[in-house]
Amino acid sequence: MSKLNPLRLLAALSLAGAAFMAQATDFTVAYQTTVDPAKVAQADGAYERATQSKISWRKFDGGSQVITAVASGDVQIGYVGSSPLAAAATRQLPVETFLIATQIGAAEALVARNGAGINSPQDLVGKKIAVPFVSTGHYSLLAALKQWKIDPSKVTILNLDPPAIIAAWKRGDIDATYVWDPALGVTKESGKVLITSGELAKVGAPTFDAWIVRKDFAAKHPEIVKAFAKVTLDAYADYRKDPKAWLANQSNVDKLVKLSGAKVADIPLLLQGNVYPLAADQVTALGAPTTQAITDTATFLKEQGKVDAVLPDYAPYVSAQFVQ
Hints:
Layout: H1 6-24, E1 27-31, H2 38-44, H3 46-51, E2 55-59, H4 63-72, E3 77-81, H5 82-90, E4 95-103, E5 108-113, E6 128-131, H6 136-147, E7 156-159, H7 162-171, E8 176-180, H8 183-188, E9 191-196, H9 197-201, E10 208-214, H10 215-220, H11 222-241, H12 243-248, H13 250-260, H14 267-272, H15 279-285, H16 288-303
Parallel strand pairs: 1-2, 1-3, 6-7, 6-8
Antiparallel strand pairs: 3-10, 4-10, 5-8, 5-9
Helix pairs in contact: 2-11, 5-16
């Protein structure tokens, strides 16, 4: 029987240990079909290289579905809007916001179908409006109705996810919808925009998207969360340095189209319609501004009967430690 070479044994143990560590840090990320510069990094595998992990990317049609997956433990990192985030925090789910992905502008909007007889906001009374419930679109729709002094009970609000909205729109089953791409692009082809989330933000109803992480995963793998945040912020910085040059690179546009489902012609407007906070802005944003925004959103959701209560403090659900 030959003796084991100590060096070979050490090397084998090291490789086994490295393989175990790699396997231990594999994780699942829930993403949505929003248009943002970081999708180029996603397509390029930059997140995998930075985190030195195998990432399973799962596409979701709405934030409430993401929250359910994160709460179950099936997903460790997820992309959600401020409304489902507020609902999740109010339920005291074990999550924390570690990055503001975008301050929503023209990327979400209320669109009325041509031929539905909607020429002004007041014409929405008696009409069917589709929106994914407890989404940023839902929050914005209710805020818009409040702004126009329209009682929500005077319209029929249907709970549909974006793919179902597209199908219902094409059949003529709905009169209007508050949604994001790719459904937004489809509806705009045969409809008109009544208001955007950017316009609502100016009258006191801002919405944003954020990256959240399970607290247990973040506590165990803080270096992975930091690396994930850095890749995202580097992508934002690359875009904001020269948006025109960035868009002139057809490869960037193609990757956005592939992962979002948006039309090529709509990409510039959708990117310009949102604000992608840089690293220097994140530290400040991931403090009192975000905590207050979640509180305000939760308060609004309670008024609408979507959550039972408002927590006295939402600070435990927001953390700037991963973008320091």
